[in-house]
Amino acid sequence: MLNGRELATFREQLLAWFRQFRRDLPWRRTQDPYRIWLSEIMLQQTRVAAVIPYYERFLERFPDIRTLAAAPQEEVLRLWSGLGYYGRARNLQKAAKQIVAKHGGAFPANPEDLLALPGVGSYTAAAILSIAFGKKHAVLDGNVARVLARLGAIRGDLREPQRWQAVQTTADALLDPKTPGEWNQAVMELGATLCTPKSPQCLLCPVAQFCEGRKLGIADILPEKRNKRATVQVTLAAAVFVDNEGWTFLLPPPQDTDVDALADYAPSLVSRMWHFPAASVTGDPAEKLRAFLRKLLRGVSTGNWHFLPAGRVRHAVTYRRITIVPFRIQVRKLPRIAGAQRVPLHDISLLPVSNLTRKIARAALASADSAPGKR
Ligand code: SF4
């Protein structure tokens, strides 16, 4: 623990460094809670460079909470398309509706109301409260926890509840009460630019003199690994129907009520976005997919369909390693399925789709280019 004088020096040095070297990011030019909230949600599990263009496009279309609350969900998802973890976009809009309905469109400025919003946890609430409203709440996420674990040479799995609570207590004690929003951003910036997961750049660190992990020579092994959930391998077969004009069809996002059932047959592929018909398979993927399509198309004869394999697409979502075996099925006329929507195969992003669905479309397009007679 730092004494009063050390703590003051620690804060001064970190803030001075931040003021000099901070990256100029679009959400740092505002104190609008809506914009800060949006940036925090987009930055979850996603790199800054990937977020910037999405953030700007999103705000162009939805400049305030009311516009977002009133927009069709399809459009919100379309502007999120490619950013992944689409539950974030759905929760964002649900929360916007809640803010309009319960708070007259004014962003709540207290932890209870913020934590009641879908998709807002303690980290996001603390970020909004401190950055937008100047309130004394210290943020704590994996990035900040890593910095604090190294500074205090904290051993063990940080996600164990008691240890996490101890790290939160440290974060609260270090927080500069005069400028909590800037302080939180400075700690996050240190974690994002110098105190990175691999090879921390301690020689450039403004608070290296206070770092116990560096003194003990263990900074780069902290935080210690947590016990990970075992990886699960999943194989899916996906059907990409294509007619003679190059059109395909996608199935709509499943409704809240049937997403669990869908997750059984196509975990993560669906992502609750528009998607190709797909089934979880073991054994011969073409045969399994044919059986699945017969069910989906309610007995339509699939005998004439030729399933052209379109390589393999690999994808990882949390603990799942997914292998997708896409099949291109060339048909004169696309089969009719209630709710499905036609799109050109080369431009499926006209609908909100996940990156995985885009990869499948690319594989199907490539398979047509390399099919016999096309070379
Ligand atoms: Fe991180 Fe190194 Fe700074 Fe310690 S000295 S906080 S390990 S960058």
Key terms for this structure?
7 strands, five-stranded mixed beta sheet, two-stranded antiparallel sheet, 15 helices, alpha+beta, binds iron/sulfur cluster, 375 residues
Structure characterization notes:
This protein is 45% helix and 11% strand. α2 (33-43) packs antiparallel against α8 and α9 (142-151) crosses α10 (161-174). The chain is α+β, with helices and mostly antiparallel strands and 375 residues long. Strands 1, 3, 4, 5 and 6 form a 5-stranded mixed β-sheet that branches. A two-stranded antiparallel ribbon has the order 2-7. The chain has helices at 4-21, 33-43, 48-61, 65-70, 73-80, 87-103, 111-115, 122-133, 142-151, 161-174, 180-193, 212-215, 259-265, 285-296, 355-370, and strands at 232-242, 247-250, 278-280, 307-309, 313-317, 320-330, 341-344. The protein is built from 15 helices and 7 strands. The longest helix is centred in the first third of the chain and has 18 residues, at 4-21. The radius of gyration is 25 Å and the shape is elongated. Bound molecules: iron/sulfur cluster. Iron/sulfur cluster binds at residues 147, 150-151, 194-195, 200-202, 205, 207-208, 211, 213-214, 219.
